[in-house]
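thread from #wetlab-drylab

HS: before we spend reagent money on co-crystallization trials with coenzyme A, can we at least see a predicted complex? here's what I'd submit
DV: go for it
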Amino acid sequence: METAKLEKTENAEEIVIRRVKGSEFNQVFELVMDAFARARAGLTGLDVRRRRRMARFYRLVSGFLSLFDILHIDFETVLVAVCGDKVVGEVHVVPHGRRIWSIESAAVDARFRGRGIFRNLMKEAVGYIAQRRGERIVGIFLTSTAAAAKVLRELEFEIFEERSLMHLEIRETPLFDIKSDLSIKALQKEDIQQVYEICKRVDQTRMETYKFVPEDLLDSFASRLRKKIASIHSKKWVLHRDGKAVGYVSLTYTSPEEAGNIEPFYILPSENSSELASVLLSHVLNFLWTNNVRRVLVKLNKDYAETIEVFLRFGFKHVAFIGDVMKKPAYENHTETN
Ligand SMILES: CC(C)(COP(=O)(O)OP(=O)(O)OC[C@H]1O[C@@H](n2cnc3c(N)ncnc32)[C@H](O)[C@@H]1OP(=O)(O)O)[C@@H](O)C(=O)NCCC(=O)NCCS
């Protein structure tokens, strides 16, 4: 990418935005830790050693970015705002296949806030993705973050879903009584069509936005590799009633220090959805308990009152609202493929 120049600071140093260099990853790591991780450590837990390992891995891979450009291989990277040799802001840009990219975890050094660095990082990230002929940009943000809400509106992102972020400290093994017509099994290839139908029924906009296809339910080689590198374990379970899939959940967890993450959690609407949701959730919480993970996060569409009610009954607490946003970047001859 071209280097974008921003304002000059009082001591006449320019702030420039460009792709990260390998030697800057430690600074990016510290910046992200300061901006997010420490503030949210109580909620998510924090395994600093694991994050450091990942930062080291990205530093290694970043050496190949120019080669990936030449070969037209999309790879995730970080755009940084740099003042002199100091990284003062950063944003992650991540390709997800099918020309869909996400913009994630933007942060600006507290001493450099309020100077438009975030706004410019976001503009450059959109430009970077357009240059790579990305067709859709997605992102999530806490709706209470005023700067994000403002800049995303300016850049014409639209909110396609609002979710409640909920949190639980698991203090006991939930009672788990499963009726004989119900069963919970790991997701198998033969389930994917039925599970895909549940996903579409419950969360159609998300499925369309991410151009989700049934095969996406099974991890690709690349995503298995990514999880291995980041030490992310995952479980996907299907709830069956009389042999028919009626619920689906995916759980990721890393180390006992960090919170597990339930996403998505879908139950086919019916008159006993609440009971089905309770059974599936009990299964997940029992699993986490057995694996010594004592806290967990979930994001649930804020309109799904019945499911939210079940999570509240299990002791989950609402933490914040999250906006899921989407934008189609504009560039010449932009025709969207489906
Ligand atoms: C959120 C964050 C990235 C903003 O960075 P920043 O460089 O200070 O933001 P900008 O200077 O580009 O501000 C963009 C707009 O938001 C406004 N804004 C910034 N911070 C604000 C705040 N705390 N409250 C209200 N408005 C705010 C600015 O006034 C500006 O609008 P204006 O130019 O019309 O005045 C930074 O505060 C941060 O790193 N926070 C912690 C990490 C985080 O929450 N990241 C979430 C990103 S999704």
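DV: The domain at 166-321 is CATH 3.40.630.30 (Aminopeptidase).
HS: ok that's useful, forwarding to the group
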